[in-house]
């Protein structure tokens, strides 16, 4: 069984700063942590891996992120906790991505994880950082494997297809939402790209057997028990599991495992579907809402207070 856990690096503080010119979130230079929902998703995957190991069965857990080079440390932490391997997609070509371009980039990474090369690396217990042809990686990003001439976008697989020699994972786990972006769109978008069933806001993983996964998930009407065939995408709630701490042995082992860091060309990402170019969302204006703590105590009779409320509402343009 192969499980891919999508892990997003989010700012450790709740204070969000926006670039006034590009209208994107300012991330550089700020400490990042793993999105708490994704930490829970990883724990779900590791629990499945433990169960399978106890039953003498294999299970590969891959952690995947699209982010800045520093995200590598968070992925290494995932390996220290028990993940089998990790892949970081890091390239200026991915910058400015909206959710559509982000899920597309992640889908390219998922296909790469299922490719023969990545599978072999995981089987041998080590992932790899591939050598790039000179000039193939974006400035300031880690170098990755260069795409063979003509092997990029045009030949990239369409929805629901695996690249030649590549196999899709049995399970893709995402957090229900990222605490900074907050759209909760990535999981369902990945399911759409791969034509897989998707269950959102999963609160309990009940069973995985006979090629099906059974879960309890939250809906507006309450908790629902559903069973879907594998491969599938699940997005999980934060309290589905308590993330384990990395063991000392795990930290030591992870220190020696290179995290694969690949560029857009390495994963055959279509430039027209990546980053700002592949983002149909137009941010017209972004701002942090101003909060005012002023309070007025209304005096006088009830009609006088009512008149004052109306005046205040009119002043506020309501
Ligand atoms: P959600 O859909 O809420 O996340 C759900 C789950 O998806 C997560 O729990 C996680 O499992 C997975 N996931 C989400 N993102 C990632 C990831 N990167 N790697 C791995 N797993 C992930 N953000 C920037 O950092 N830089 C930019 O320049 C930038 N430009 C933007 C431009 C536009 C026009 C827009 C609309 C957004 C931009 N963003 C940018 C925000 C970025 O698009 C979102 O953060 C991203 O698409 C994920 O959406 P979300 O945070 O709402 O994730």
TrEMBL record:
Which GO terms label this protein's molecular function in UniProt?
A: electron transfer activity
**What is the protein named?**
Electron transfer flavoprotein small subunit
Q: How does it assemble?
A: Heterodimer of an alpha and a beta subunit.
Please describe what this protein does. Answer: The electron transfer flavoprotein serves as a specific electron acceptor for other dehydrogenases. It transfers the electrons to the main respiratory chain via ETF-ubiquinone oxidoreductase (ETF dehydrogenase).
**Pfam families for the chain:** ETF
Organism of origin: Enorma shizhengliae
The Electron transfer flavoprotein alpha/beta-subunit N-terminal domain sits at 22-271
Instruction: Quote the InterPro entries the UniProt record gives.
Output: ETF_a/b_N, ETF_b, ETF_beta_N, Rossmann-like_a/b/a_fold
Q: Where is the composition biased (Low complexity)?
A: 119-157
Which residue ranges does the record annotate as region Disordered? 119-165
């Amino acid at each position: 069984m192969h499980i891919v856990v999508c892990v997003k690096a989010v700012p450790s503080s709740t204070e969000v700063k926006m670039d006034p010119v590009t209208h994107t979130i300012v991330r550089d230079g700020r400490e990042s942590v793993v999105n708490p929902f994704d930490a829970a998703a990883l724990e779900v995957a590791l629990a499945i891996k433990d169960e399978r190991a106890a039953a003498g069965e294999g299970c590969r857990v891959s952690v995947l992120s699209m982010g800045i080079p520093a995200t590598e440390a968070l992925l290494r932490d995932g390996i220290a906790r028990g993940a089998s391997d990790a892949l970081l997609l890091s390239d200026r070509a991915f910058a400015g991505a909206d959710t559509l371009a982000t899920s597309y980039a992640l889908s390219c990474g998922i296909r790469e994880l299922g490719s023969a090369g990545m599978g072999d690396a995981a089987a041998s217990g080590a992932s790899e950082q591939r050598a790039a042809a000179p000039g193939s990686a974006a400035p300031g990003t880690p170098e990755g494997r260069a795409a063979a001439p003509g092997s990029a976008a045009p030949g990239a697989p369409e929805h629901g297809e695996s690249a030649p020699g590549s196999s899709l994972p049995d399970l893709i786990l995402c957090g229900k939402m990222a605490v900074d972006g907050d759209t909760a769109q990535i999981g369902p978008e990945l399911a759409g790209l791969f034509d897989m069933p998707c269950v959102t806001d999963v609160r309990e993983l009940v069973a995985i057997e006979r090629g099906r996964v059974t879960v309890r998930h939250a809906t507006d009407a309450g908790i629902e028990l559903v069973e879907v065939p594998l491969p599938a995408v699940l997005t999980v709630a934060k309290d589905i599991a308590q993330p384990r701490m990395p063991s000392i042995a795990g930290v030591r082992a992870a220190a020696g495992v290179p995290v694969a860091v690949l560029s857009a060309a390495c994963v055959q990402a279509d430039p027209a579907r990546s980053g700002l170019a592949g983002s149909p969302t137009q941010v017209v204006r972004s701002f942090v809402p101003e909060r005012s703590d002023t309070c007025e105590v209304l005096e006088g009779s009830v009609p006088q207070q009512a008149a004052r409320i109306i005046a205040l509402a009119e002043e506020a343009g309501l």
